[in-house]
Every structure is written in C-alpha cells, then in structure tokens.
Specification:
Blueprint: H1 16-26, H2 30-37, H3 41-52, H4 55-71, H5 82-100, H6 145-153, H7 157-163, H8 168-179, H9 184-191, H10 195-212, H11 218-225, H12 227-243, H13 246-250, E1 253-260, E2 267-269, H14 271-280, E3 288-296, E4 299-307, E5 314-325, E6 328-336, E7 349-350
Parallel strand pairs: 1-6
Antiparallel strand pairs: 1-2, 3-4, 4-5, 5-6, 5-7
Protein name: RNA polymerase sigma factor
GO molecular function: DNA binding; sigma factor activity
InterPro entries: NTF2-like_dom_sf, RNA_pol_sigma-70-like, RNA_pol_sigma-70_dom, RNA_pol_sigma-G_actinobac, RNA_pol_sigma70_r2, RNA_pol_sigma70_r4_t2, RNA_pol_sigma_r2, RNA_pol_sigma_r3/r4-like
Length: about 350
C-alpha cells in the first residue's frame, strides 16, 4: 500500500495559522485546539481502529490521545507537523492497549469450519472479537482521490483481521510506513527504537499479512464492478433474506463462500455448508427480517433487523459485511449485536 493521507510529512513545519492557534491553545483556548485537531480526527480514529480492531476501543484511544495532546501542547515545539506529533501520541496509546489486551479474533482463528448448521451455538464472551468499522467519513478531507481509495483499502476487513496477528510494534511499523507514509527513521523516533528495528518489524509484518491476505484488495473488485452493480448484488442479498428465498440467496454465492458470525464461534466454508446454515437458521428459524444498506470497512454491508412477525417491530441484530468477487458474494461476516449499530448512525429498531 502507498501513502493514504496527503497531510504534511513528519519533517514539515507548522503553518502560520497553526502557530497562531497553537499559541491560543497553549493559553487554554479550547476552540483553537479544536480547530487544530478537527481536520485530523477521522484519520487518527481510523489509525486507532487498525491498531486495535474495535471501533469502541478506537473511540477511547482517540479520546485519550487528544486529552494527552491537549495537556502536552507545551512539549510540541513545531519542528515537525502537528499531524505527525498527534500520530506519535495516538500510536503510543494504542501500543499500551495492545500490550495489555488480548488480540482481536475472528471465528476462523478459533477452529475449523463446520460442515452442517450448528443450531445450539452460543456466543463466546471470553474472546475479544474484531468489530466492523463504519464507512461514514472515509475519504473526507484533503486527500487526493488515489489516497482516498487507499484509505478505504487500508480498513478492509481481511487486512484489519490480518493486522491482529502482528505484535504491537510490527502493527505500528506496517501502518505508519506502508499506510501512512512515514519513513523508518521517523517511525523509530516515534517508537523510541532504531531504524534497524523498525525495518525488521516491517519485514516480518509484511510477510505475515501477505500470508493472511493472499488475494487482491476488495477495492479493486468493487471498482471493476461499479457502484450500480455492487448495489444490485447487495440489494438482492438483503431481499433474499427478507423473503426467505434460498434459491435467490444461493445464486449470489461463490462455490468457496464463507459465512461467519462473531461472537458465535462456528463458521462455514463452501456452498453446501453455507446453504445448509442459511436454510436452517436465517431463512427459516428467524421469523421476519428488515434491512438497511450501509458500508463497513470500505466494503458493502447490510444492517439486519429481526422481528417476531412481519407486522411487528424489528430490532437491531447484525451488521453483515460482504466481500465480493466476480459479481458474486465470496464472504459474509455477520457481526451480531445491537452495540454495532450506533457507530453507523443506524436506529436500534425499525417497523
């Protein structure tokens, strides 16, 4: 991946306007501090999500980073860009969190796929699960079109899941170098280590990610299909669920399709296993579905609501992130739980 964001490099000096707002912020002007950090909030939040694999953890990490930056403004002398300094603060906070918490997991990390539908599966509450990331705001700001494309690529579900298999220093090195465009020497300064150590961590990280994500980026497939065709496929998927139409659903799937549902540990691979699960559970045992189209991790997604009857209230159930290939659905990741809906700006219930 190339550089995602087109902000100033670590070696750039702050602008005259930033100098003025820095002086005001150091004097206790909240509005000036807000002006300084507001253009950077979304990219910093996305960075924290990549590091931590959780929108909620990213919220906490960014809040802590901005609070620490506010309290430490006196130590920022303006020899580097404010953006670079904030990345130092945010990365160190994320590294502290990575060192004290279990890595985020997906069902595929826990065991082999199931060949038949598991009807008595219970959520695993002792696992730190990877969570979805809302597309809202991705691509905003001054970045070039190419940079905005790469920004979405860098939050794709497969890539973020692969990052969770890296040690904290490897994760940080890969993101800061390959995604954000910092140099090895700049990263070494950020992480209080040597450029040699950074390069070593970077090489190891690239090897592991390449093993976990062997195919091409989802963004390339989406661009080839075009927005209209992607929306058609996603709408057909959601409609098939609502109508309980197994044939229509199966027609959308690849032969090697997978379906997982964190926090449930069981997952399915292959058309036969996925079809058995779909027919046994969502298409027959779930009384009524409603949906809203959305976007997660730079990919098409469907928010599903479950009701006891077609005429009753439907409650938030899952955010389903779809991976497409050759005009079919190659992977369905259903993040179960109403807690995922608020970050997407979605209601908790619909008619």
């Amino acid at each position: 991946m190339g550089e995602v964001f087109s902000g100033p490099s670590a070696g750039s000096v702050v602008s005259a306007a930033e100098h003025a707002d820095l002086a005001r912020a150091r004097a206790g002007d909240d509005a000036a501090f807000t002006r300084l950090i507001q253009p950077l909030r979304r990219e910093l939040h996305a960075h924290c999500y990549r590091m931590l694999g959780s929108t909620h953890d990213a919220d906490d990490a960014l809040q802590d980073a901005l609070l620490r930056a506010w309290r430490g403004l006196a130590r920022f002398e303006g020899r580097s860009s404010l953006r670079s300094w904030l990345y130092v603060v945010a990365t160190r906070i994320c590294l502290d969190i990575v060192d004290t918490r279990a890595k985020r997991a997906m069902p595929v990390d826990l065991g082999p796929s199931s060949e038949r539908a598991v009807l008595d599966s219970a959520p695993l509450t002792d696992v730190a699960w990877l969570g979805p990331y809302p597309d809202a705001g991705l691509g905003d700001g001054p970045a070039t079109p190419a940079a905005r494309y790469e920004q979405r690529e860098a939050v794709e579900l497969a890539f973020v899941a692969a990052l969770q298999h890296l040690r904290g220093n490897q994760r940080a090195a890969l993101l800061l170098f390959d995604v954000l465009g910092f140099s090895a020497s700049e990263i070494a300064s950020m992480m209080d280590t040597s450029a040699t150590s950074v390069n070593s961590a970077l090489a190891r990280a690239r090897k592991i990610v390449a093993e976990k994500v062997p195919g091409s980026a989802q963004q390339q497939a989406l661009r080839r299909m075009g927005d209209g065709r992607v929306r058609e496929i996603v709408t057909r998927f959601a409609t098939a669920l609502e109508r309980g139409d197994a044939d229509a659903l199966v027609a959308l799937l690849t032969e090697d399709v997978t379906w997982s549902m964190p926090p449930l540990p069981h997952w399915y691979r292959g058309l036969a296993a996925v079809t058995d699960f779909a027919v046994q559970v969502p298409l027959t045992r779930c009384p009524s579905w409603r949906h809203r189209l959305t976007g997660a991790n730079g990919q098409p997604a469907v928010a599903c609501y479950l009701g006891e009857s077609p005429t009753g209230v439907h409650h938030a159930w899952s955010i389903n992130v779809l991976t497409l290939r050759d005009y079919h659905i190659a992977e369905i990741t259903s993040f179960l739980g109403s807690e995922h809906f608020a970050p997407f700006g979605l209601p908790l219930s619909v008619p």
